[in-house]
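Predict the holo structure. Ligand: 3-methyl-2-oxobutanoic acid.
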Amino acid sequence: MSITQSSAGAGASQPGLPIPKVTMPALGEMKRQGKPISALTAYDYPTARLADEGGIDLILVGDSLAMVVLGQENTLAVTVDEMLHHTRAVRRAVRRALVVSDMPFGSYHGAIADAVANAVRFVKEAGAEAVKIEGPRVELVRALCDAEIPVVGHLGLTPQSVHRMGGYRVQARTAEAARRLEADALALVHAGASAIVLEGVPREAAAAITAALPVPTIGIGAGPECDGQILVFHDLVNLTFAPPAKFVRRYGDASALLRSAIEHYREDVEHRAFPSDAESYHLPTRQTMGESAQDADFDSEEAVVNRDAFEDWPS
Ligand code: KIV
């Protein structure tokens, strides 16, 4: 079987042209060429499709799903099955970007064989092209790579360690701690990690680690020198119902847009301004309800069960 290689980093696809797939090696090539890598989380078909069509290189089905979609307090409770469910939806939407799934808390913290089996599910059952794991788990990274599963490491502020860290705090705040972080990152890369997410670390530490690593760093709250940047979709478009962290830049206000649409709809319903006559279906011209139902020239039963049939109705 032939493999189509990618020219990643081209941004949004051109209509009519074949879409070059972003692969993990292509991200490495972007680093070598000094091309910034754009990454964004997505958790469902519409947001993943928008991110992919917007030319994002890497789409992460993050375990932030727990907080921004499922309304949980932290990322700890989300399950493998929930992550698989959302990864499948994202996979269906994405044609170009690399799809990476977060392995949730507890799914890779026991025996290595169990962790590999869980990771295999992300690839086999949901179509993930890599998994992301938090912390300096060198042996596990080696085992996953042996199983042909590309790994993105995640160091610095690792949200699954919230209880150990005592909150979401910037990590590696001393030169000594930054050196330890760099050693962890190098160890993960030597074990086979293809990229490293650096979260919540001083810009200087992230810059030094980025320069030291042969694979891309993807920063979130780690300054501009990382090879790429990632944000949570809901932060980007103001859908989090909370003040943003310092590192978040809001590029749109989906809350305002959606609130306004919902309120206008409700008002229109309350004032009987929706639906209009043009948004209604009609009996064939000159027929009235007085005539027998069999006389109507459409099959009302089929129209109820098949939404496409609505399009074919006479108006
Ligand atoms: O779950 C997540 O959203 C993440 C971040 C790195 C964006 O891990």
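The pocket of 3-methyl-2-oxobutanoic acid is lined by residues 41, 60, 62-64, 102, 197, 199, 220, 230, 232 (CB under 6 Å). Confidence is low (pLDDT under 50) at residues 1-10.
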